[in-house]
Design brief:
heterodimer; A: alpha/beta; Dimethylsulfoxide Reductase, domain 2; 4 domains; 29 helices; globular; B: alpha+beta; Ubiquitin-like (UB roll); Alpha-Beta Plaits; 2 domains; 5 helices; 18% helix; 14% strand
């Protein structure tokens, strides 16, 4: 196509075009482009590149994709410099999710993908570096004088030699097969990743189940919303949100429980704040920290850490006492109300006030506001889930919604804000030890038979182990071989000292990642994978919206996509997995997952679709459970919960309560965000937040260095006074390896959700010289 | 735009002789857009509540005064003209005034926002920067020139480079309030506002502290909506230079 013809064709389709000689500037390149036209644009770019001089070669191509960070799943357009294979800048694009808005991570945090430390060649541990153990100073648990931000490549890389893909994959497969055949399938386990696509998650669990022969496959959902999902499945029969977060604009009341929304789901928070500001929606925030959301709240209840059950039981007590419940809904749609009523009877606001540290009058006021709302939505985060009674916390919130008839209509519902960009999808795809894709139980013989037929192998009927149980298994020697795709448990799992021993104890470990992580120091084989930007796949956000992430960059060196690597390992273990593209994988997955039925890459388009999507010409189902719940009886079930304190309460020796979490600018173990120029510049290192009076009592100045110690370990970092904290509380983010918060955390688990108690353990704080 | 409710009467009006029907509550700007008539605008963005401060979308509605289409509601039977010699002259005059102390280098800075002001000058044939007030360019930041007549002008307004991601050039700001609405109404971070009086008026962060010391969360919304490059990117290249000045974000360059 000549430049002139192309120009005409583009203009006809509403694309804004300007001509500068043979060069064209294009804008408003939306879905209207046909594949032929897209090809013509690409061909033109190629021709131009061939004729331009070096200095003029820069061409920029836009790629409509999604954000790689949190569960909000903002739609982003990346502008890619093709000659230099890097993203120049990013901008939010129109979508029902974010309406062009982004947060600091989405807008500025993409450059990690072009960081020079990207792994490019498979690595094999040198003979001289056995027996295995940590390789860098920090991971060994020693402190260095200069503060270290990232894994020191110079310290770690000499312990590995470069290998070909053939050699590395053969070694990985041979050793895994060896362990499987010698010690049985149960000696193997895999950690998938909620950062990978649905297709990669599906293939990963298929590999573990069909080729490893075990259900020991889990991922970080275990560490974020496992307890919420357990409670949701038990009560309303489905682990996903019942409505989208944007629905808040039609709610009369929004309750935010245990979620630092502006920090962890910033763009979702903008819609909640906007609803509040419009005057339409009243906002109730319950949190032990006076987070930014509290500044926008009509009611803010700064409860003592770990007392959520008491607070919500007392709300329910008030609602029942004052008749602010929906009798008809309870009668028609629920079961077990009498049992609940009996339990909450003893939780008067006056009783709760003493435990929660909030005035009984405020408890009553907030409960009434919630109870009087025609439409109320409940949002919650890790502050609810990451407790040894996390399932109980979630049960209370669900009961609250059921009792007031707040599920199944516009402006009502339950929305556990999902953490990772694809934690919903990885769970949907079955990277969970008890269920196959779409939450179909491995213990159900009929279900198992269906998957055995689909995958052509016999499958293990026994549910597998969860994340922390697998680490325990490694420590005990029950788990001998592991395959980790994009997870970094060394920093993300509780009680790092124990994780260190567990990882060292593994006979064989394959780590597949984009950077050398702390966990990779324990690997026998390291496989270099592609980043989010270097592959295509689908990702499912917190709203259940399935969106296509499109390839923007070429992978560096020899890095390969996660799904291809998984298939290669399968083939070498005697289980062929052959796919031509992620789309092929997606259609195999959707055929086995009824919730995803009807979805294809084509109909997902630029803004994706919500599952379930009975009519793919529509956007999918926003509000679930208008008539019945997907439980055996079709009713929602009240499951009462009694208060139980956290496992490790403060005492004389360890008088402070440690709370861990994230900062706005960083992501989890920091492998991505600490390699982003802007994010690192804004927040270069760890600090502990403490109440000013506590710091003063310790004689520590603003920014003074403290040692924070628990029964499991200790770290040293600067402390800053924050009047957003309660007395006796410490908040430390877990991103920073030089002061890894998870050295301190306790590996006690919620008995149902098997989630660790990241939000509560006892620590001592002292000035460090 | 107002969403349709059943039983609501549509409003009929004509714009440049073409008939159009809109829902009650729609503005003239929105009605014009339905007809594919793009009115020049600096302060308005469909995602923001209109404020009508730049006055570039002025139209004639048969009244003695011109009216700003972005804030003026469409009325039944209204006859709107979007272009005339009088309107062109007004718009040219407005752009000329806005550019009279606009620093020449602001449009070169990397940005995801636009250079709508400079673009508009080109479209309207405003002879800029030749007719820049002080007639000079490139004064050192922080200096203030006092041109004849004693009206403060020149390049005296501050540069703020304290944020790690966004650079602020107050001299390039035309006080269109887009950044303030982006920050306060869309993202609801409520960090930005206005401070000062008269020529000293400027956008401000928190209680007028440098951006990098404010409670700004670096979401970038202000930079994205800025039409002049007063807010630009630090450390990012943004679009290549030949796409800058395009008046719209999201350019591919071939």
């Amino acid at each position: 196509m000549t430049t002139t013809t192309l120009l005409g064709e583009l203009k006809k389709r509403g694309v804004k075009v300007r001509r500068r000689g043979e060069r064209l500037l294009l804008s408003d390149l939306h879905g209207a482009l046909t594949p032929e036209l897209r090809a013509a644009i690409d061909a033109h770019r190629e021709e131009l590149l061939a004729t331009l001089d070096g200095g003029e070669r820069s061409t920029v191509r836009s790629v409509d994709s999604v954000c790689p960070y949190c569960g909000v799943g903002c739609a982003i357009r990346y502008f890619v410099d093709e000659a230099e294979n890097r993203i120049r800048y990013a901008d939010g694009r129109e979508s029902p999710v974010n309406h062009e808005r982004l947060c600091v991570k989405g807008r500025f945090g993409f450059d990690y993908t072009s960081h020079p430390q990207r792994l490019q060649t498979p690595l094999i541990r040198k003979e001289s570096s056995y027996p295995k153990g940590p390789l860098s100073t920090e991971v060994r648990g020693e402190r260095r004088r200069r503060s270290g931000g990232l894994v020191d490549y110079e310290e770690v890389l000499p312990h590995f030699r470069e290998a070909t893909w053939e050699e590395a994959l053969d070694l990985a497969a041979t050793r895994l097969v060896e362990i499987r055949d010698r010690d049985g399938s149960g000696a193997l386990a895999g950690f998938g990743s909620a950062k990978c696509s649905n297709e990669e998650a599906y293939l990963f669990q298929k590999l573990v189940r069909a080729a490893f022969g075990t259900n020991n496959v889990d991922h970080c959902t275990r560490l974020c919303h496992a307890s919420s999902v357990a409670a949701l499945l038990e009560t309303i029969g489905s682990g996903a949100v019942t409505t989208v977060f944007g629905d808040v604009q039609t709610a009369d009341v929004a309750l935010i429980a245990g979620s630092n929304t502006t920090g962890n789901h910033p763009v979702a928070a903008t819609f909640i704040k906007q609803a509040r500001k419009s005057g339409r929606t009243k906002l109730i925030v319950v949190e032990p920290r006076r987070i930014e959301m509290a500044d926008h709240a009509d009611y803010f209840l700064q409860i003592n850490p770990g007392t959520d059950v008491v607070l919500y039981n007392s709300w329910m007590h008030v609602l029942i006492e004052e008749g602010l419940i929906d009798e008809a809904y309870i009668a028609d749609r629920t079961e077990g109300f009498e049992e609940l009523k009996a339990v909450v009877e003893s939780y008067s606001p006056e009783v709760a006030a003493g435990i929660c540290g909030v005035e009984s009058g405020l408890i009553r006021e907030a409960a009434r506001t919630f109870g009087r709302a025609e439409r109320a939505m409940i949002f919650w985060g890790m502050g609810i889930s990451q407790h040894t009674h996390g399932t109980d916390n979630a049960r209370c919130l669900i009961s609250l919604a059921l009792m007031t008839g707040n599920i199944g209509r516009e402006g009502t519902g339950l929305h556990p804000l999902r953490g990772q960009n694809n934690v919903q999808g990885a769970s949907d795809a079955g990277v969970i030890p008890m269920v196959y894709p779409d939450y179909q139980s491995v213990a159900d013989p009929a279900v198992r038979e269906k998957f055995e037929q689909a995958w052509g192998v016999e499958l293990d009927p026994k549910p597998g182990l969860t994340v922390v149980e697998i680490m325990g298994g490694a420590l005990d020697g029950v788990i001998k071989g592991m395959y980790m795709m994009g997870e970094n448990p060394f920093l993300s799992d509780p009680n790092v000292n124990k994780v260190r021993k567990a990882l060292s104890n593994l006979e064989f470990l394959v780590v597949q990642d984009i950077f050398l992580t702390e966990t990779a120091e324990f690997a026998d084989v390291i496989l270099p994978a592609t980043s989010f930007f270097e592959k295509s796949g689908t990702y499912t956000n917190s709203d259940r919206r399935v969106q296509v992430g499109r390839k923007a960059l070429q992978p560096p060196g020899g890095a390969r996509t996660d799904w291809e690597i998984t298939c290669e390992i399968g083939a070498r273990m005697g289980y062929p997995m052959e796919y031509g593209s992620p789309e092929e994988v997606f259609s195999e997955f959707t055929a086995l997952a009824p919730s995803y039925a009807g979805l294809t890459y084509d109909n997902l388009g630029l803004t994706g679709k919500l599952w379930p999507c009975p009519d793919p010409s529509e956007d999918g189902t926003q509000v679930l459970f208008g008539d019945r719940f997907p439980t055996a009886s079709g009713r929602g079930k009240f499951v009462p919960a009694e208060f139980a304190p956290a496992k490790e309460l403060p005492d004389k020796e360890y008088p402070f309560v440690l709370n861990t979490g994230r900062r706005l600018e960083h992501w989890h173990t920091g492998t991505m965000t600490r390699r982003s120029r802007a994010l690192h510049a804004i927040r270069p290192g760890p600090v502990a937040d403490m109440h000013p009076a506590d710091l003063e009592a310790l004689g520590v100045e603003d920014g003074g260095i403290v040692e924070v110690a628990s029964r499991r370990g200790s770290i040293v970092l600067p402390a800053v006074p924050s009047d957003r904290m309660l007395r006796g509380a410490v908040f430390i983010p877990f991103h920073f390896r030089e002061a890894a918060a998870n050295l301190l955390t306790i590996d006690e688990l919620d008995p149902v959700g098997k989630i660790p108690e990241y939000k509560f353990c006892a620590v001592r704080v002292s000035p460090a010289s | 735009m107002a969403t349709r409710r059943s039983g609501e009467q549509m409003i009929s009006l004509s714009i440049d002789g073409r008939a159009v029907q809109v829902l009650p509550g729609a503005t003239i700007w929105e009605a014009a857009r339905l007809l594919g008539i793009g009115l020049p605008v600096l302060c308005h963005d469909p995602r923001l509540e209109p404020v009508g401060v730049c006055r570039l979308c002025l139209v004639e509605v048969g009244e003695p005064k011109l009216t700003a289409a972005c804030v003026r509601g469409a009325e039944d039977g209204m006859e709107v003209r979007t272009s005339s010699e009088r309107l062109e002259a007004c718009r040219r005059g407005l752009v000329e005034l806005l550019l009279s102390d606009y620093p020449v280098d602001a449009s070169d800075r990397p940005k995801t926002g636009s250079d709508a002001l400079v673009e508009l000058a080109a479209e309207l044939g405003v002879d800029w920067p030749a007719r820049r007030w002080s007639g000079e360019t490139g004064e050192a930041p922080g200096s203030r020139t006092e041109p004849a007549g004693g009206i403060p002008a020149g390049d005296g307004r501050a540069l703020d480079g304290t944020s790690k991601v966004i650079f602020v050039d107050h001299q390039a700001c035309i006080l269109c309030d887009r950044c303030i609405r982006g920050c306060d109404d869309l993202q609801v971070n409520e960090v930005m506002g206005r401070t000062g009086k008269g020529y000293q008026t400027s956008i401000a962060f928190d209680l007028d502290v440098p951006m990098g010391e404010s409670t700004c969360v670096s979401c970038g919304e202000c930079e994205k909506v800025c039409p002049t490059g007063a807010l630009s990117l630090v450390g990012w290249e943004g679009p290549p230079n030949d796409a800058a000045g395009s008046g719209d974000v999201g350019w591919e360059v071939l």
